[in-house]
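Dear colleagues,

As part of the handover before I leave the project, I'm documenting each prediction I ran so the next person doesn't have to rerun anything. This entry is a single chain, and its sequence is reproduced below.
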Amino acid sequence: MVGVNGVNGRAHHPRELRVNVAPVGEIIDTSVSDFAAQACVFGKAPPFGSFVKVLLPERTVYGLVFAIHSGSLDPGGRPVMRGHDGLRDKQIYDANPDLEQVLRTEFTALTIGFDESGRRRAYLPPFPPPLHWSVYECSEAETAELTDSFDYFRAVLAAPEVPADALLAANVRLAGRARGDDRAFAVRAGRELATLLKYDYPRLTAILRTLRD
């Protein structure tokens, strides 16, 4: 049986191989610490704070989506206003079906760990995932499994140029829903944040406040 990205049925990560699951993006910029992908469908990116994965023959790399951007397909281009004479919002796309061919949506994920040889590592992989490799959304079951441990919290809080506080709050909310609104999970997450931010009470309370919304 052939799996995603041409990996055969005896791949190292059988639980990640999903039949009939389409990728949500293709990597267009990559490093060990994060990777950016162009969404396969304009305007459809994984939610902010959600987990994504890249399936490689030797390992599975996991990322946390922290940025989503839509703009011109031309790197030097910029979209122009299309609304006129009462034409607004969705009507603009209906009247200009070619727009989706000249626009793109990108999302960027912070690498939070990887699986290799049947073990999960909560640190950066030895190499970044390759350019043009497919990116997949993690299922609710995988989200629940990834949040059994909060080892990635520290890496998120320390990541530069990442909206860490809002990102962790969004991630905990999404993970809570994936776990069936598990109250005990939210309490554990709050306690972990309290340990990591014990010397920054204002920051801690701001995150916990958003978790209650």
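The longest strand covers residues 103-116. The chain has seven helices and seven strands.

All the best with the project,
I.
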